[in-house]
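Weekly structure sync, notes
Attendees: PL (lead), two postdocs, one rotation student
Agenda item 3: pending single-chain targets
PL asked that the sequence for the first pending target be pasted directly into the notes so everyone works from the same version. It is reproduced below exactly as submitted, 568 residues in total.
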Amino acid sequence: MPLTRLSLARGIVARPGAAIVLALALLAASVVLAFHNEQVSRQEDVQQLIVQSRILGGSVAAALAFDDRATAQEYVDALRANPEIDAAGVYALDGHRFAGFSTADAPLPAINRITKPREDASEIEITAPVVQNGTVLGSVYLRAPIEPWTRRLSRYVGIGIIVVMAAMLIAGLGSSYAAASEANRRIKAEMEARQAAEDALRQSRKMEAMGQLTGGVAHDFNNLLMAASSGLELLDRTNDPKRRERLRQGIREALDRGAKLTQQLLTFARRSPVNPEAIYLGKRIATLRDLLDRSLREDITVAIDFPSDLWPVKVDVAQFEVAVLNIAVNARDAMPNGGIIAITARNVPASDGEPDRVELSVRDEGTGMPPELIEKVFEPFFTTKGVGHGTGLGLSQVYGFARGTGGTVRIDSIEGEGTVVSLLLPRSLEAPPRAAELSENPCIAEDRTCLVLLAEDDAQVADIVVQMLVELGYEVRHVDDAEAALELIDNGLPADVLLSDMVMPGEMGGLDLARAARRRRPELPVLLMTGYSATASAAAEEDIPLLTKPFGIEALGSELSRLIDMKE
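Predicted structure, written out during the meeting:
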C-alpha cells in the first residue's frame, strides 16, 4: 500500500470521531443503497413478470383462436415449476377464465380485465392482452409473491452489511443474468414455434386459395368447352347455311373467351408478354361495344361519353380490353335488376407531383359495397360470388394492369347507390399509329413463292399453322425442333422467313434459334410464337417480333408481310 494511503488509514483509526462518522456514512450509504436496490429489484420483478405474460400470451394465441383449452392448459402448467409464479391464467375475449392454476390460497379471478400492473406489500399482479395479427383474442393473468419487508430488512443489519450487499448484488446480478438468458432462450423458442405455425397457416391458406382458383377456372373452361364441343356436334348435324354460320360464330366466341381467360391468368401471374401501344380510348372502347353487349344482359344498357379532345394513352391493348370487360362484368353482377353502366373519360392535368393522366370511369347503378369489402376487392382470389362462379381474379387483373401501365385504380362505392371504378392511366406523348390495312402476300404480287421455315414441336399446332401459311400462299418446310431448323439453314435452305415456337424440346429453344439464325443469316427475318414463356420479355428486349397464341390467320399474314417487306 502506498505511504499516503497507509497514513490516511492510520489517521482515521486513530480518531474515533472520524471513524464513527465514516461508519455512519457507510451505514447511511448502505441504507440508501439498500433502498435503491429494493426499488430496482421491485421494478425488475415487475418487468420479468410482464415478459412472462407476453411469452404466455404469444404461446396461447393459437389455442384461443381455435378454442383449444387443453393446449392452453399445457402452456399454463409449464409455469408451475417456476417458484416465482403463484398463479397463472388465460382468459377468453369476454373475460371468463379459459385455463389456469393457483398455488397460493387466493384463487384465480373468475373474470379478468386488462389493467396496469398492480403491486402491494405481498404480491404483484400482471394482466396483458393476447393479440394475433392485430386482433385481440383474450388476456393472460400472472401473480407472483413479494418477500415480506421485515425479512428483507434483517439482511441489512450488522457491520458486514456492505459485504453482504456486495455478495447479494453479485448473486442477484448472476441470477438476473441467468433468468434473462433463460427467458431469452424461451422467447427464441416461442418465436421459432410461432414462425412454424404461421408458415403452416400461410401454406394452408395458399392451398385453399389454389383450390378456389382451380375450381373457378375449371367452371369457366368447362362452360367454354361445352359451348365449343356442342357447337361442333351441331355443326355436323345441320346443312342450313344460316344456322351453320351462327354455330361457327358461337364457337369462335367461346374460343375467344377462353383466350381472354388465359390472358387474365397470365396477367395475374405477371407472365404475359406486354405489348404497349399508343391508343385513343374512345376508338378502342367503340370496338369493344359489341363484346360488352354480348357479355351483359338485355336489361343493362351501356352509355359511353368521351370528349373529343381526350389525350392518348400507351397500354397493352389486350390487357386493357380484359380489364374493361372485367369491370363491366362486375358491374353487371352488382345490378340484378338491370340499369345503366356509364363509361366516361376525362383528361386529368398534372398536379401534386403526378403527371398528365387520363381517367376512365365505369359507373353502375348496382347494390354498392360496404367499406370493408372495398378494401379487399383487389386481393387475388377474393370474390363475393358463390363457389364455382368465378376465379376471384377479375379486379386483381385490373389492379395488376393499372400498376403495370404506370397508373392506378380506385373504387368509390355507396351501398344501395352504386359503384364507380376509375382507371388512371398516364398520358402518352406518342400519337397512335394509323390503322394499316392487312397486307397481302408480297411474294404473290411479284409472281413468286416465298418459303417459310416452321419450327414447331406440337403436331396439331404445326398442322394448323401449315394450313394457314398455305392458305396465305406460302410454301412451308416444317421441322420439330430448333436443331433441325438450324441444320437446314446451315445447309443453305433458301427460306424467306423463319417462324419458330418459343419453347421446344432439346437444349435449344426458339429464342436461341433466333439468335443463331441471325448470326448465320443476318438478313433472314425471324418471327417467334408463344402461348406462355418466361423468356417472352427477352424476345422483346432483343427486338424479335412475337405472336401470342392463339392468333388468327390475319395476324399471321400481316406480320409475315411486314417482315418480308422490311427485308426487301
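Discussion points:
- Residues 377 and 395 are 7 Å apart (CA to CA).
- The chain has 17 helices and 17 strands.
Action: rotation student to compare against the earlier draft before next sync.
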